[in-house]
## 1
Amino acid sequence: QVQLVESGGGLVQAGDSLRLSCAASGRTWDTYAMGWFRQGPGKEREFVAAISWSGTSTYYADSVKGRFTISRDKAKNTVYLHMNSLKPEDTAVYSCAATNDYGLQNWDYWGQGTQVTVSS
């Protein structure tokens, strides 16, 4: 079992930066790949970024590539999403997730989400 708790969301202006954190707990959390997803108002949930269990591989949606960076600190049991050059279209509830699926298709555990609002 893995428990995930997000934090760091808030209201920012376009062009600002924000760092989201996902605190993980559970005996084997560091063997899971971790990911961030988001769901904007009236939209379906979409993939944002993922990082392998080792931290050596990262993956990004085209819409955030070059602006967002995912990282993990195993000593702190935390996964981060560094978001730069934020745009109003980045407004969404951001959730972190964990998976043992190497194909990153089936996610086993989810956090409750944190709201990010970007004003123009």
## 2
Amino acid sequence: QVQLAESGGGLVQPGGSLRLSCRASRSIDSIYTLGWSRQAPGKQRELVAAITSAGSTTYGDSVKGRFTISRDTAENTVYLQMNSLKFEDTAVYYCLGGGHSDLSDYDYRGQGTQVTVSS
């Protein structure tokens, strides 16, 4: 079993940046895909970004060009750099891990970290 622990959420103004981190409790070498989804109140969960062990990335349409996902196997950590944040990026962001490249299904999920974009 793997525990995923997110950090880095918070309050930011529109146009600002945040970097989320997700640290795994053990080596991520065996986890094919790591990534992030988010859920806002009253909305369905949506994929934000995912990265495979081979470095292939997938992004949700609403974040393309603004968010960047990366994976550091030495630190057992996956990062989400979020730039040009918008009001609609406000959500709880969850770190996910599993065998599907788009994380349509997953084996591991963190507790979530709140991101609030507000002026």
## 3
Amino acid sequence: QVQLVESGGGLVQAGGSLRLSCAASGSIFQINAMGWYRQAPGKQRELVASDSSGGTYYADAVKGRFTISRDNAKNTVYLQMNSLKPDDTGVYYCNANIRSIYYYDEEYWGKGTLVTVSS
């Protein structure tokens, strides 16, 4: 079994910064990809940023403001969010595609961390 645990959400004023962390633990053989999604009130969940062997992806709305990074030794992914806007408000979910020690690839989700940006 694999668990993803997020941290780092909170309340920040527009223009401020936050750093989200997501640590994966459990029966991990390798992590194929990690990323962050967000869901604003009344909207669908959307991909914000991801990182895999194929490269890094950013949604247009966050390009130039958010940076995704990984610490492979710690099985952790980070999302540095700068110049935050009220539209960035939402629950941020960590997502990972992980190959277990039994060589099965599965997708996992964290429980989410709330980011609130005040104007």
